[in-house]
Amino acid sequence: MRRIASIAGLLVLMTGGLRAQERMGSGAPSASYRPGWTFTPTFGVAETYDDNISLFGRNTADTVNNDVITTYFPQADLHYSGRQTQFGGNYSGSFLDYRTFNVLNRWDQRARLEFRREETARLKWFAHGNVAWLPTTDLIDLAGIPFRHNGARTLDARAGVEYIAASKDAFTTSFNVQDVQFDRTQDVEGVLVGGRMMDSLSTWRHKLDERLALGGDYSFRRAFIVGAVDAFDIHVTQAAVDYALSPEWMMTAGGGIVYLPPTATMTARTGPAYRAAIERHRAGRTFHAGYMRSYIPAFGLGGVIQNQEVRVGFRMPLFGSRRFYSDTGAIYRDDQPLTDLFVQLPLRSLRAYTVVGWSPQPWVHIEGFYARTDQSSLRAGGRLDRNRIGFQIVTSKPMRIE
């Protein structure tokens, strides 16, 4: 039953979440927390070749649109682990130092707070928040965002409760606030809009046997898009199934209806919403793949879009040693506009990365990485791609606070 509850909790954290895209490397070594307070300072340096520093469309200033960037990223993590309480705070910054085009030098900053409390074996609650100041919009892991070399600020905060009733039923409910703001420059007016969204998500799972649980999910979202005359409401109701194929493999799926009430710019709409995911965890190896289709607010394009996305990721040790590893992942999105108030175009976006790393000591990682970004729309010059390749060294050392 705890496993079923954790799957439902994972859905709470993943559905509709706004995340800043991770760095191209895996980042700091994995933290291991002991009871009490732990402070973990981290520092890293990376050298990256970028063939599209301005995020221009294809065949636009190709010969003067690349550079080598040195990145310095300090990080500090404070964590408390108690018998019933978990608390964590984290700050990370990245200073991008362009070798030629130093006018583009700037900070990428992120902060996180997280709190979890286990009141009883059946009742848990949590709260967490993330804020990020990002130099380019392709770093925002959210649908409907045109990629631009334009600054953005993102905020995501969520709080919720997990409850196990008797031994067969698990319930979760959560409330989330998201906010996306873009630097207002003349060349992005009408292209990057911004706004905020509030949503709630409730899930229920009933355990039928040791492997299978059935249930349902309901979410309500209200989005306020800059420039819109009224808010957009989205209701999603889905039946759900969670099935443990084996002790290592877990499958989750859901399907149902999404309903959008009418607004001044859009007639009422009803359509299908469905998702499926599979994941595996075993001895340092992880694999996950998932597909999702629904209607969501578009903070970049404005209005509401029909979003389809596919995610896949795989991490494994190399050469039979845990000191060597690879980490590969990709996400593909197809976004179709539904409203007429904004000048909207379809967007097809792809992000993919691969990392090969070596950890000679638990407190240091040395990694080589490659990342590709690709996006296309129907407008002239609307096809862009970006390739980045480089290496980084990251050191991290947890320290107990007595």
| CA radius of gyration | 22 Å
The total of helices stands at 1
Largest sheet: 18 strands, antiparallel, barrel
Number of domains: 1
What's the CATH topology label? Answer: Porin
Query: Could you give the order of the helices and strands?
Result: HEEEEEEEEEEEEEEEEEEEEE
Total strands: the figure is 21
- Return the CATH class: Mainly Beta
Summarize the amount of helix as a percent range: under 10%
List the helices and strands and how they pair.
Elements: H1 2-14, E1 19-20, E2 36-50, E3 67-81, E4 85-98, E5 106-118, E6 123-134, E7 140-141, E8 152-165, E9 169-182, E10 195-207, E11 212-225, E12 232-244, E13 249-260, E14 269-282, E15 285-297, E16 304-318, E17 321-337, E18 347-361, E19 364-376, E20 384-396, E21 399-401
Antiparallel strand pairs: 1-7, 2-3, 2-20, 2-21, 3-4, 4-5, 5-6, 6-8, 8-9, 9-10, 10-11, 11-12, 12-13, 13-14, 14-15, 15-16, 16-17, 17-18, 18-19, 19-20
